Amino acid sequence: VKGTWMGSTTVPCTYMPSEGFTQQTLTWSVERDYSTSTIFRRDDSGDHVLLSQFRDRVSVPKQSPGNISLLIENLEIPDSGHYTCRVIWRSTDDSLITKEVTTTVKVVKDTRPPSAAWQLPKS
């Protein structure tokens, strides 16, 4: 997934909700420079943004079952990395099922030629 600096991007993560399985925990983590940090966690107690540099910049849809994509706004260059969406479901017999998927996000500066940039209104 490519994102533009200062823009926003959605890191996709979807599943088919099925009967007998309830979503227990959802975590989004990012790996960069060989270390992994958890950004976001959704559990019985609600939604938690665990990394301060993502506070007020990330969200996960609540209203659409099966869509737990991560929206990142006001992208910064250091947001580039490998994002992992990890879901744990509990089934009716109390067993747990975990699935995860990793997406690479690359944040790039806008590369329009200077002539196009001159026509942009001054903010």
TrEMBL record:
SUPFAM superfamilies: Immunoglobulin. Signal peptide: none annotated. One of its GO terms (molecular function) is complement component C3b binding. GO terms for biological process: negative regulation of complement activation, alternative pathway; negative regulation of interleukin-2 production; negative regulation of macrophage activation; negative regulation of T cell proliferation. Transmembrane segments: none annotated. Residues 1-102 form the Ig-like domain. It comes from the Eukaryota. This is VSIG4 protein. It comes from Nyctibius grandis (Great potoo). The gene is Vsig4_0.
